[in-house]
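Please, structure for the following, as tokens.
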Amino acid sequence: MAGRRTVLFFTNSDFGQANVVLSTIYELLRQNRLDTHVVSWAPLQPRLESLERKVQDENPSQSVPSITFHNLASFPGFLEFAKKNANRRKADVPHPPGRLGAERIALLAVRFLSAWGPEAHLALLGWAADLTKELDPALVVVDPHLVPVHDMARSLKRKYAVLSPCTLAEENAVYDPQVKAINEARSAQGLHEPLGSFTPWVKDVPHICPSLPEIDLPLSFPANVHNCGPIMLPTPPMEESDPDLLAWLQKRPTVLMALGTHFEAYAATVREQAIGLRVLLDARPDIQVLWKLKAEETSEGDGKESLNTILGEQIENGRVRIESWLKPDPVAILRSGHIVCAVHHGGGNSYFESTWAGVPHVILAMWYDTFDYATRIEYLGIGVYGNRAAGRNCVVNKENYQAPLMVDGQEFGDALLKVVGRTKGDSYADIMSKKAAQLGEVCRKSGGRSEAARIITELSFEDAFYSA
């Protein structure tokens, strides 16, 4: 194991995708045995630089190696790819579960597998291959969503691993015309393996995941899946990151509602969410709400009007605090000791953060795998699926699709009261809170971040390279 080796990460820059990469790199920098290169979009670069400074500040007597950043927008054809995807509206990503949402689920799967289109797919594959040959890393670590890079690693027969922010999910869209076009272009380049990255169909490729048997459904995992436990970023305490917000949290037990970076709420959804919060606040005058709200731009005015009508008094007297962005990391807020319930959309990152923190959930599921996490918290006894009926009974316009209304205020309010308790000391809510706290302790003891770094380091110093 003499000498240093290089590890090359390819990742998206969205927080929900990149946090597991940043967390693992933090541990690798502290161990200082590998040279780290990261390929991503420009918004990730400042976060990497901040990570370097943090490790250096924590180890002032050591020289912390720099992270080398490579801009993913440098590959040929990026501008054309960006132009094609510029008009996709986040507000219309949500879809209902089951039969009503089947077509949209299939469409999302197709977009995931064929988002790049044949030309961009091969252009990114070639660009990534040139970079990989130049750096000659001991290990390539790939985000599951960067499908062309998986092809690159396989075509070059490089040893690689998948570092996922989610549990394993399955997709089946290989017969769609868009996916078939990608596969035809791939086949012309000699790439005949199935297209996809979530399912560990290549048994020699390690899949590093943030789950644990204790916080997952009863599944059987193949040997190449490493369930490390939640892979959390180190976060400064709120005393440092936002003392003003901490002072506000200290006033009352708080419900934190943050529905993910990809969720933008139409006015009708804002209205029903506000109604649900009003149900809670009327029943529990000792509770307050911190709401991270990102409204859909064209209906933002109507949404504000609903907020003023339904929650105006509570906003005025300080029991409801609405922010478009939160300065502290969500984990710091969740671990402040003042959060009694986390309301989120059921994204993998939100699920693992809240579960690691030991906080019970209400999930307003909005798309694809979020329905899985909403079911999971009820199976584990640590939360409530807060829009089950609204999602199943919503109205979908297939001809001119717009995200349907999938939140009902009364259903949401009832879910909140189940988790927080209709009265202080409610036995059902207390049982749920204790169960969440127990699983949080299990998660924190798992050392997910350190375990992910250990696996990547061991793989990097193995001499046997991956061969398909």
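The CA atoms of residues 31 and 255 lie 37 Å apart. The first strand starts at residue 5 and ends at 10.
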